[in-house]
Write a structure and sequence with these properties.
The chain is of the alpha/beta class. The strands form three sheets. A seven-stranded parallel sheet has the order 3-2-1-4-7-8-9, sandwiched between helices. Helix 1 packs across helix 7, helix 1 packs across helix 17 and helix 7 crosses helix 12. It is 44% helix and 17% strand. 51% of the residues are buried. It binds uridine-diphosphate-N-acetylglucosamine (UD1). The site of uridine-diphosphate-N-acetylglucosamine has 19 residues, from helix 1, helix 5 and helix 11.
Length: 374
């Protein structure tokens, strides 16, 4: 008998995490893995391009939920995922990260009973294992929808795979011990290390007319930064005042806000473009003088690339990137952003790569799941 694991991905930051996991399952004949795409992100530039570039197999199931309010999106994923469990009868459901697709599928799985019992952790059970990859991260900011998704998903997971030491500490505080939580490193970095060489041949610098280390790369999509037009305008003005040329691939959420508020950026200072594919974006990060972001994953990627990162948020759930890596948590006020910018040369040289961010995290996860099911 093979262990059937359903892997769930729905939004852009999920795709680079799921790619190495699907490969690790495919390399181990004891597993039979399927992929469910919830359709939370549906634009080619947020979804299809990652499947093509990272050789992710076509999803076995596409729930096609699309956009909506948090409740609508989460509820719709739950409604459409339950019949998939009924049909597929998996031994485990693996969810990654902290998006609405993560909590929606974890919650449905946690209350689902298979027709046939199976063995896990040395006992017989009928509920598929809920497996959370990137567990334990905490920003302690309950205004972030992702923080709610993280806490709820971890609370109902059977196996929690942790990317950095802070995650183990957070989980221990919440009563989750080493019987359920395993420090495996960072699957997003598995993907980065595997693609790094290929990204070097991306033509994106030439296409955008950019020189090595001659620009700052900007990404912004957190509701707290972009949904309030005044806050967004202030941030963009602060960045434009730093004096470095800025490259800004604009997330659809941000583009909608900018369009409706009539915000236009000076082409002398800004190169504005659509969201980019994985390889082009990796090349842009690797060659940037500095990256300004409110993303979680980019804080980690810049740490591995040794590129200074300035995080435009008040908190981070990824403290290792500040303690050991190249990240500075600058908040969103002009004074702190300017101060962080003045320190980039010093910070960039001091960074190192965190433990177990070594390209082997997905293999560790597959091995630990096999142990739990043996
Ligand atoms: C979601 C995740 C966030 C992640 C981000 C990466 C949650 C709560 N948020 O935020 O953690 O960092 O993805 O991108 O799950 N839209 C499109 N095309 C698409 C998808 C969305 O145009 O393919 C537009 C829609 O107008 C939509 C808006 O973007 O309403 C926001 O999309 P949504 O999935 O709700 O959240 P993100 O802001 O992308």
């Amino acid at each position: 008998m093979r262990w059937r694991i359903l892997c769930v991905a729905g939004a852009r930051p999920n795709f680079m995490k799921i790619a190495p996991l699907l490969r690790a399952f495919a390399d181990d004949p004891r597993f039979e893995a399927g992929l469910v795409h919830t359709g939370q992100h549906y634009d080619d530039r947020l979804s299809r391009v990652f499947f093509d570039e990272l050789a992710i197999p076509r999803p076995d199931v596409d729930l096609e939920v699309g956009s909506g309010s948090h409740a609508q999106q989460t509820a719709e994923i739950m409604k459409r995922f339950e019949p998939v469990l009924e049909r597929e009868q998996p031994h485990g459901v693996l969810v990654v990260g902290d998006v609405n697709s993560t909590i929606a599928c974890a919650a449905v799985t946690a209350k689902f009973f298979r027709r046939e019992p199976f063995r896990a952790f040395g006992r017989t059970r009928k509920r598929p294992l809920v497996i959370h990859v990137e567990a334990g991260l905490r920003s302690r900011d309950l205004d972030m929808p992702e923080e709610i998704n993280r806490m709820l998903t971890d609370a109902i997971s059977d196996l929690l795979f942790v990317s950095e030491p802070s995650g183990m500490v957070n989980l221990a505080r919440e009563g989750v011990g080493p019987d359920r939580a395993v420090f495996v490193g960072n699957v997003m970095i598995d993907t980065l290390l595997a693609a790094r060489e290929r990204a070097r041949s991306s033509p994106v610098l030439t296409t955008l007319g950019l020189g090595e280390r001659a620009y700052g790369l900007v990404t912004l999509h957190r509701p707290s930064n972009v949904d309030d037009v005044d806050a967004l305008q202030r941030l963009l003005a602060t960045l434009a005042g730093l004096g470095v040329h800025l490259v800004f691939p604009v997330h659809p959420r941000t583009r909608h806000r900018m369009q409706s508020a009539g915000i236009a950026l000076d082409p002398e200072r800004w190169s504005v473009c659509e969201p980019l594919g994985y390889l082009d974006f990796l090349r842009l990060q690797a060659s940037a003088r500095v990256v300004f972001t409110d993303s979680g994953g980019i804080q980690e990627e810049t740490t591995v690339l040794g590129v200074p990162c300035i995080t435009l948020r008040e908190s981070t759930e990824r403290p290792v990137t500040c303690e050991q890596g190249t990240n500075q948590l600058a908040g969103t006020s002009p004074a702190t952003i300017v101060a962080a910018y003045q320190r980039i040369d010093e910070i960039g040289r001091a960074g190192r790569v965190p433990e177990r961010w070594d390209g082997k995290s997905a293999q560790r996860i597959a091995a630990a799941i096999a142990d739990a099911l043996a």
